[in-house]
Amino acid sequence: MRLTVLLLLITTALYAQSAPDPTRFAAEIEAFATADAVQPIAPGVILFVGSSSVRMWHSLQEDLEGHRVLNRGFGGSQFADLIHYADRLIYPYRPRAVFVYEGDNDIAAGDSARDVLRSAKKLRKMIAKNLSKDTPVVFISPKPSVARWELHREYEKANDLLEAYAEKQKHTYFVDVWTPALLPDGTVRKDIFLADNLHMTAAGYDIWEAAIEPVVELLDR
Q1: End-to-end C-alpha distance for the chain, whole angstroms
Q2: Which of 59, 56, 54, 67 is nearest to 214 (CA)?
Q3: What pTM was estimated for this model as a whole?
Q4: Relative orientation angle of helices 152-168 and 113-130, to the nearest 10 degrees
Q5: Residue 18: its pLDDT value, please?
Q6: Quick one: which of 205, 218, 207, 213 has its CA closest to 52?
Q7: Which residues of the chain have pLDDT under 70?
Q8: In which order are the strands placed within the sheet that holds 69-73?
Q9: Cα-flanking dihedrals φ and ψ of residue 23, to 5°?
Q10: What is the pLDDT of residue 168?
Q11: Can you tell me the distance from the alpha carbon of 22 to that of 80, in angstroms, rounded to the nearest whole number?
């Protein structure tokens, strides 16, 4: 019994050391709260949350014109960060649908595809509990990138798991932005990235728009 308890404590301590500290994004979260206080957001928006690939989608409203969308992407977040701030970034808006982009930084930080799936399931359950089980949740696949191509097999596994999970859950969807960013030989396009080879140019977001807009149309009828 003592050995079991000791192992549990060690495991918990190691996890606490490796888990990202969500308070590193406190200033960004406060900035959203300030903006909402100045211009309150009416319920029913189509909410986009997640890491910097969402945050840097500056043309989101233009690309999805005709739909009331809200961008609440922040920093280089991971699933754990979004889960931590869900009570500030998701629930208060009472969204019509939630589009989630996480997993990209998780895998880069050492998480497995199964870790990503577990986090996605946890977030999905939280949204069902705190909003409604009927609130649509759309998981956007982690994208391929030149900078992280050495991890592409793990990203592909994560995308397969997320897609399979979404297919089995009511009001849960998966959008593939991975495949349309590949060349015919299966490698990632190099012409859709900024100098860091990780974040996308407008051409990259054109790919996202083409993949995501039909789902927005479906959910915003």
Answers
A1: 57
A2: 67
A3: 0.92
A4: 30
A5: 58
A6: 205
A7: 1-19
A8: 69-73, 46-50, 97-101, 137-140, 172-175
A9: -70, -10
A10: 97
A11: 8
